[in-house]
Amino acid sequence: MPIGNTTLNYQSRSSFYEDWNKEETLPEVADIGQTYADIIRGETQDYMKDYGDFEEALIASRKDTSLIDAVPEDVARESQKAKEIAERNRQRYGYQQTAIERDETGRSEQRGEALNLAGGLTNARVAQKEQNYQTMAGLINIGSDSYSQNINSLSKASAGQTERMNAYKAAKGSHKASMISTGATLGSAAILAAFGFGF
After folding, report:
1. Is the pLDDT of residue 16 over 60?
2. Is residue 16 a part of any domain in this protein?
3. What is the pLDDT of residue 110?
């Protein structure tokens, strides 16, 4: 099947999978419960090997303060930028400030910087808290999904084993009843034959 300049050929791999299916056979299972427990343990170990470091990093990041820590530097940089813009504008138009104006401008800039810092910290704390909650929720969901999948698999395996045991007991009981019935029929026939009531 051509797609652009590439041709996909599914037929070329089919024989590979057929050969693989012929060569590989599953081993006989003596203890179903133990085998299933080994599978779950192996999957858990693989999961921890593949995702354990990622989960540990998420756990460590649930107390992250990077958004809050970045605010003072951002506010200082933006305040400095505003001062430089104001200074360039004054120089462009040749405006000279008086001493009183310079003092008032300095106080105004300090107030603006303090307000920006307070507002930025407040917003950053809210955003940081939300981000950390989302990280925690993600961790809980990962654990919950993994737990649910394992429990569901174990429940299905347990139900299957129970059904097999019940079917075995029912077949055994049916066989026993059949043998008793056959024995009773043969016994009745023997008694009737003994008294001359043969067929």
Report:
1. no
2. no
3. 85
Structural domain count of the chain: 1
> What range defines the domain where residue 103 resides?
33-151
Q: Quick one: pLDDT at residue 5?
A: 47
| Residue 122 counted as domain residue | yes
- Assigned domain for 123 exists: yes
- What are the DSSP calls for the chain, one per residue? -EETTEE--SHHHHHHHHHHHHH--PPP-S-HHHHHHHHHHHHHHHHHHHHHHHHHHHHHHTT--HHHHHHHHHHHHHHHHHHHHHHHHHHHHT----HHHHHHHHHHHHHHHHHHHHHHHHHHHHHHHHHHHHHHHHHHHHHHHHHHHHHHHHHHHHHHHHHHHHHHHHHHHHHHHHHHHHHHHHHHHHHHHHTT---
Contact assessment for residue 112 and residue 79, using Cβ atoms and an 8 Å cutoff? yes
134 belongs to a structural domain = yes
> Poorest-confidence range of 116-125, 158-167, 173-182?
158-167
